[in-house]
Design goal:
heterodimer; A: alpha/beta; three-stranded mixed sheet; 8 strands; about 35% helix; disordered C terminus; B: alpha+beta; eight-stranded mixed sheet; two-stranded antiparallel ribbon; about 25% strand
Chain lengths: ~170, ~200
């Protein structure tokens, strides 16, 4: 009985894995470059400053300068609210005493509508999106490569079977 | 003889997937609550507890405290928060002071607060005072409260903010939590600030 030699199979597996990584990476990066958006970036700390006198301006119905009512973030961004006013302020989950700073990591992608004490609309919209970063692209690569390897290995084994050493092609022995 | 190319390829693949695994497993510590960073000294106050004793916040440094503003006739957020307090105490014991401050001083007498908190955990510190004593505390902690509705003096509800404030052992404001935050996350955050 012939002993099964694993060497050629392992060599083929390694070669197919390398080819799979290259092919999947090329497809991944191609799709990424075609569909890249401004929110495809690494998480950052984004600072909002509440200027002195904001509470009085909001109470009087006046606009608050330099504070937008809606912003777009990516997951793991840290929203830092610096309160330079003489009153405590809140933005949804963030509460900031007078003269202090409050921060919150935006962990989950979602659209949030928060009550807000420092905009004249008393509302602040947070649009938190999942960015496509190097990490997510590598994760996609990790997910896609194993099934590609399995598919190519089985396909290759059927179309180009590995012949045992010393056995002539065709199997005929004189 | 095995090809060195084979070994190199196997090592490369193992390293690649190993790095992917490590990257997903190692996450930086983060808080569930919103942080006050850098921490600032929490506004001090003196009120009266459910046993008629004066309670001054700054006299109870040395362990963290949670502070919540509510009222004993509250139908929704206050019982939820007090149930969370009970669970937190079950997990952390005396390592944390759990403080309840009324937003309804007219109805929340010492006796009323003692009876109400006894349904949850008698170790919860319930504080009341006159409206004049409480208003500066509400202001310092940014607490909104407004009575409405009702068919008489005794029948009304109080709209109020439901934030829970975490104060560290040195008396600094460190974190705030919304009502949606589960008690396990609060315990985890408290342990982080204790460490």
């Amino acid at each position: 009985m012939n002993k099964l030699e694993l060497g050629p199979y392992l060599t083929r597996l390694v070669i197919i894995t390398i080819i799979s990584i290259a092919v999947v990476a090329a497809v991944n990066e191609g799709a990424y470059l075609l569909q890249k958006e401004k929110t495809d970036r690494l998480p950052q700390t984004i600072q909002l400053v509440i200027p002195a006198g904001t509470a009085e301006r909001v109470a009087a119905g006046e606009e608050t300068p330099s504070i937008p009512e809606k912003m777009i973030f990516v997951t793991s961004d840290v929203l830092l609210v610096k309160n330079e006013d003489s009153s405590a302020h809140q933005l949804g989950p963030i509460w900031v005493p007078a003269g202090a700073s409050g921060k919150l990591e935006l962990a989950e992608p979602n659209k949030y509508s928060y009550s807000c004490s420092f905009t004249s609309a008393r509302y602040f919209g947070l649009d938190v999106r999942q960015p496509t970063t190097l990490g997510t692209r590598l994760t996609a690569l990790g997910i896609a490569v194993p099934p590609t390897v399995v598919f190519l290995f089985i396909y290759g084994s059927l179309v180009f079977p590995i012949k045992p050493k010393g056995k002539p092609a065709g199997g005929a022995v004189a | 003889m095995k090809s060195p190319f084979l070994y190199l390829g196997v090592v490369g693949i193992v390293v690649f997937f190993g790095l992917l695994f490590v990257r997903s497993a190692v996450q930086p510590a983060s808080f569930s609550g919103s942080q006050i960073d850098p921490p600032v000294p929490a506004a001090d106050f003196t009120l009266t507890d459910q046993n008629g004793e004066a309670f001054r916040l700054s006299d109870h440094r040395g362990k963290p405290a949670l502070v919540f503003f509510g009222y004993t006739n509250c139908p929704d957020v206050c019982p939820i928060t007090l149930a969370n307090y009970k669970n937190i105490r079950g997990e952390m014991g005396d390592q944390v002071n759990l403080i309840f401050i009324t937003v309804d001083p007219e109805r929340d007498t010492q006796e009323q607060i003692r009876q109400h908190l006894g349904k949850f955990d008698a170790a919860i510190i319930g504080l009341t005072g006159t409206r004049a004593e409480l208003e500066p505390v509400w202001k310092d902690y940014g607490v909104f409260q407004s009575s409405h509705g009702g068919g008489g003096v005794e029948h009304y509800d109080v709209d109020h903010s439901s934030r829970v404030y975490a104060i560290d052992a040195e008396g600094n404001w460190r974190l705030t939590f919304l009502i949606e935050t589960d008690w396990q996350s609060i315990v985890k955050d408290l342990r982080q600030i204790m460490n």
